[in-house]
Amino acid sequence: MDDERATSGRIRRRAKPLDRTRLEELALAYVARFATSTGKLRTYLERKLRERGYVEGEEADVEGLVARYAEKGYIDDEAYGRARASELTARGYGARRVEQTLRAAGIGEGLRHDLEPGEGAKRRAVLVLARRRRFGPFGQALGGAPEEVRKLREKRLAAMVRAGHEFGHARRVIEARTIEELEEWVAEAPDGSP
Question: Are 70 and 102 contained in the same domain?
């Protein structure tokens, strides 16, 4: 049967299985609409094949299609990874979070390593997060019972570590007394990578 009941009670037609032409059209539409990586395109096409199937008697060549699109320059893992890494550090995420995002996008280990933020970028990113979340000297002075102050500091440290920052960097920001002290710390960092 070609029909499938939807949860609303209406009958929905099942999509036709994909053929080579339709698979290429889906791939082209995807790369035209989204900045993507080879891994993300591969995942998208494989999902479409699982959902709709492929015409009997033919074999889907997802790897060949992805390779052709990369060869033609429709997808570029390095450009995608560089843009994504820059975007994440600019938003205040740490190196670990950048690496996780690039891994999830299917970026290879070597390229992920090359795109890892340098010390200067790591320090700038932790400062962006602290400023945005009003941590350390960017917020109000912590007052109250010593136990409450300790718990709040731990909570803020944990938030920074979850955002992908090194514990030492997060601690430095939380314990800083002035914004100028942090800006000086960022300025003295060696800055060799993105």
Answer: no
